[in-house]
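A reminder before we start the practical. When you read a complex entry, don't treat the lines as separate problems. The point of joint prediction is that each chain is placed relative to the others, so the output describes one connected object in space. Small molecules and nucleic acid strands, if listed, are placed in the same frame. In the example below there are two entries. Take a minute to note the order of the lines before looking further.
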Amino acid sequence: MSEVSLKRHPLDDYLRVARMPHIWCPGCGLGLVVNCFLRGLLRSQLNLDKVVIVSGIGCTGRAAGYINLDSFHTTHGRAVPFATGLKVANPELEVVVISGDGDLVAIGGNHLIHAARRNTDLTVLCVNNFVYGMTGGQMGPTTPLTARTTTSRGGSVDRPFNIPHLAAASGAAYVARWTTAHVRRLEKAVTEALLKQGFSLVEILSPCPTYYGRMNKQVTGLDQMKYFRDNSVIKSGIDPKGVGIEVNGPIVVGKFIDRG
Amino acid sequence: MPEREYLAGEFFLSGDDACAEGAISAGCRFFAGYPITPATEIAERMSERLPEVGGNYIQMEDELGSMAAVLGASWAGVKAMTATSGPGFSLMMENIGLGIMTETPCVVVNIQRGGPSTGLPTLTGQGDMMQARWGSHGVYSIIALSPSSPQELYDLTIRAFNLSEKYRLPVLVMSEAATGHMYEKVVIPPSGEIELLARRKPTVPPETYLPFAPDADLVPPMANAGEGYRLHVTGLTHDERGYPAMTVEAQDRLVRRLVDKIERNKADIIALEEDGTGDAEVVICSYGVSARVSQIAVERARGEGIRVGLLRLITVWPFPDDRVRELARQVKAFVVPEINYGQIALEVERCACGLAKVVLVPHMGGRVHAPELILEAVRQAAR
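Here is the predicted structure of the whole assembly.
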C-alpha cells in the first residue's frame, strides 16, 4: 500500500483550510500579505485567542475569512470604527484591521484619520494595490497620476493620497510602508505594529496583475514584484510627507514614524 | 451596583434622560454616538453615567462610525447602544443591516423630528416609522418599540435590550422630540427587581460550535470575540459555520430564518395596550406621543356617547396583524393619528382588508395633534 503524503502549508493551523482554495488571482500579493501577517503575529507571541481581525469590503477584505482567528468581515469603509468598538469595549483584545486602499482611505478615510487622531490601540494593515480590484479595476484614492484603470482609461488626472503622510499627520504612533517584495521586513513591521501601544499603520504595496498590472504594462504579479524591488528605496526615519508615489518614480519604503 | 452608581426611586426626568437611565439599568456599558437634536441629551447623560458604572462612552466622528462601533462593542460581549434622530438614522441604515445579518444584539434609539432631510431639528415628528421597518436594503424583519412617556422611554429601553439579547438583532426605540424633551415623573425600581436577559451562550466547545446554527427558537447561541471560538462573522450571505456561502440555497435558509425568528415569535415580542376596545365601534390605533393625545379624544368622544376604544401600539414592528384583523371584523372604522402623512395607517389598512374603514389623521410635523382633530375624525367615523 502506497503512502499518501498530505501536503500541508506551514501556516495551516492559522488558516481556515476548509475554505481553500481562496478566491485571489494568481500573482495577487494578498497571499504574501496573509503569510507575512501570520508570521509577524506568531513572532509577537500575542495570545491568539485575544487577537481579532476586522476587515472591510474588497479583495483584501476577504483575508478575514481565511485567517483562523476571531474575524469580522464588515461593511465598506467601516472596519476601523467596528474595530474601535471592539477595542474600547474589551481592551484585552488585540484588534487588527486588514483592508484595502479604497476601503480604508476613500469611503473609510474619515474613520481612519479619527482613529489615528485618537491614537486608539489598533493595528491597521492597509494593502495598497492602487485600484478597486474586487469591482474590476477602477481608479481609487491611491491610483498614481497618469495610471490607467477602467475609470481612467486615458490616465488618471486625480492626485493620489500619500497614506503614510496622512496617517502620520493625523496622529498615528507607528507608520511604515513596505511592499510584498519585502517579506522579511514586512513580517518584522507587523510584529512591531502589533506590539506598539497606540495607532499603528503599515501600508503594504501589493500587485494586482489582473487589473492594475495588466493596464499599466506590468502584466504578471512577478512583473509588479520586480517593479517594487527595482524601484524601492529604504529610507526609514524620513518625513513621510515626501513619500508620495508616482508612476516611474522611486517607491520610498521603511519605518517612518515610531513615537511614544 | 453600589448606590452611587445605580439610581433608584422617583425622579423628574426628561424622556432623553430616562432613556439613558433605562440603558444603564439594562446593563448597557457602551455608547457610541454623535450629537443630534433632539437626542443629544442621551449622549450627554451616557457620557457622564457610563464611567460611573464602569462602562465606556465614545463620541464617534459620525453616525456611520457610531453604528459600526456599537456592533463591534456588542461582539466584544458588552451591551451597546446609540441614539440619534432622522438624519443620523438614515446614515446608520447600512450598519443596522450588518447588525441584522450578523445577528448582533444592540439598541438604536431614534428620537424623531420633522423631516425629510434637515427638516425641523427641534420639533417633533413620527415620519421614520416605515423607515424603521424597511430602511436597510434587502430582506429582513425588525423589532421597534414606541414609548408614550418618559417613564416608558425608561421601561422600553430596558425591554429593547432584553429583546435584542434574546433575538440577536438591533432593536429600535422609536420616540419623538415631544417625548424625548418632555419632563415627567419616572420611577426607577431597585435593581434586583428588573428582569434582564443576556444572549444565550454556546454549550459546546469551539471545535463543534456552529456560530449561526439556530436553536429551536431560530436564534443561534452567541460566542463573543476573545473567548477562543475563532468565529468568522460576515455581512455576506453565510452558512451555519459563518463562512460566506453565496448560493440560492444558503440565501433562502438564512434570510427566511432572519425574518421567521421575529415573525414566529410575535406572541412574545408584541406588546399592546387596549382601552375600551371590547365593545368599540371605532378604534383609534396609535403609538408614541400621538397615543397620548388620542387618550384625550377618547375621553371626550365617550362623553359624547361614542363607543370608541384605543389600541396603543407599544410594539410597532412586528406589526400586530392578528389583533388588527380581529378588530376589523368588529368595528366600523379605525382612526389612525400619526405625525406623518400616513405610514402605520397603511399597515392598519392592509390588515383591515376592507372590512373596516381606515381614517388617517395626518400631521406633517412640528407639533402634536390638537385633540379636536382626532375627536372630529372619530365623530365622522362613528356616523
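Discuss with your neighbour: Residues 12-258 of chain A form a domain with the Rossmann fold fold (CATH 3.40.50.970). What might explain this?
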